[in-house]
Automatic annotation (TrEMBL):
Organism, as annotated: Actinomycetospora rhizophila
Entry-annotated residues carrying 4-aspartylphosphate: D54
Keywords linked to the UniProt accession: DNA-binding, Phosphoprotein, Transcription, Transcription regulation
Lineage of source species: Bacteria, Bacillati, Actinomycetota, Actinomycetes, Pseudonocardiales
Keyword ATP-binding (UniProt): no
Domain Response regulatory: 3-119
Signal sequence region: none
Name of the protein in question: Response regulator
HTH luxR-type domain: residues covered: 143-208
Length: 214
C-alpha cells in the first residue's frame, strides 16, 4: 500500500484527487493540507511514501516545501502537480528533489500511474514537462556564466559564503532566519552542481577576482 499526502490550496482539487487515489486498491490518502505551514506540521506526523504538491501555495511554493520535506524525510517521494508549465518551476522542482512533475489537465489515470511510479521509487515527467526541462538544460549548458541560474538573493548568499560567513552570520546580514539561509545555500549548491560549501566559496572568490580585474 502506497500512502499519499495531498497539498493543494483548493479543497475541491484535494478532494477530487483523494477520491481518485482512494479508489485504487494499492493507494491510500493519509492526509491533506492547503498551505506550506500546514503541510510541514502534518506530513512528518503521518510519514507518507508520496507527497503530491501544488507548485503555487498561499504562503510559499511547493518547490520550497519539497526541499524542506525531503531534508527532513529523505525517503519521501514528491510529485509536483500544477496548472502551470513554467520551465523555471520545473527546473527548480527537479533540483529540489522532486521525483515527478505532472500538469493538472492530464487524465485521472495518468495521476494514479504517476503516484504509483514515484511511490515505487521511479521518477517521471509528463511529455510537456520533460521537453521544457530538456530545453532548460540545453540553455544552461550553452550559458557560459555559472551564476546565470541563481536568483539575486542566492547570488548575495554566495558572496557571503565567499567571505567565510556562517549561515547564522549571513542571516544577520540579510535579516533572514538561519533556516531560510540554509535553504538558499542548498538551492544554490544544487543549481551550481556542487556538493560542498567550500566549492561555492572558491567560485565566489574567483568571480569576485574576475569582476575586480574586469
Amino acid at each position: 500500500m502506497i500512502s499519499v499526502f495531498l497539498v493543494d490550496d483548493h479543497e475541491v482539487v484535494r478532494e477530487g484527487v483523494a477520491a481518485l487515489l482512494d479508489a485504487q486498491d494499492d493507494l491510500e490518502v493519509v492526509g491533506g493540507a492547503g498551505s506550506v505551514a500546514e503541510a510541514l506540521a502534518r506530513v512528518p506526523a503521518v510519514r507518507p511514501r508520496v507527497a503530491v504538491l501544488d507548485v503555487r501555495l498561499p504562503d510559499g511554493t511547493g518547490i520550497e516545501l519539497c526541499r524542506e520535506l525531503r531534508s527532513r524525510m529523505p525517503e519521501l517521494a514528491c510529485l509536483m502537480l500544477t496548472s502551470f508549465t513554467d520551465e523555471q518551476a520545473m527546473f527548480d522542482a527537479v533540483l529540489a528533489g522532486a521525483s515527478g512533475y505532472v500538469i493538472k489537465d492530464v487524465r485521472g489515470n495518468d495521476i494514479v500511474n504517476a503516484v504509483r511510479e514515484v511511490g515505487s521509487g521511479g521518477s517521471l515527467l509528463d511529455g510537456r514537462a520533460a521537453s521544457a526541462l530538456m530545453s532548460r538544460l540545453r540553455t544552461r549548458a550553452e550559458t557560459p556564466d555559472p551564476l546565470a541560474e541563481l536568483t539575486a538573493k542566492e547570488r548575495e548568499v554566495l558572496g557571503y559564503i565567499g567571505e567565510g560567513l556562517t549561515n547564522r552570520e549571513i542571516g544577520e546580514r540579510m535579516f533572514l532566519a538561519e533556516k531560510t539561509v540554509k535553504n538558499y545555500v542548498s538551492a544554490l549548491l544544487a543549481k551550481l552542481g556542487m556538493q560542498r560549501r567550500v566549492q561555492a566559496a572558491v567560485l565566489a572568490n574567483k568571480v569576485r577576482t574576475e569582476e575586480g580585474s574586469g
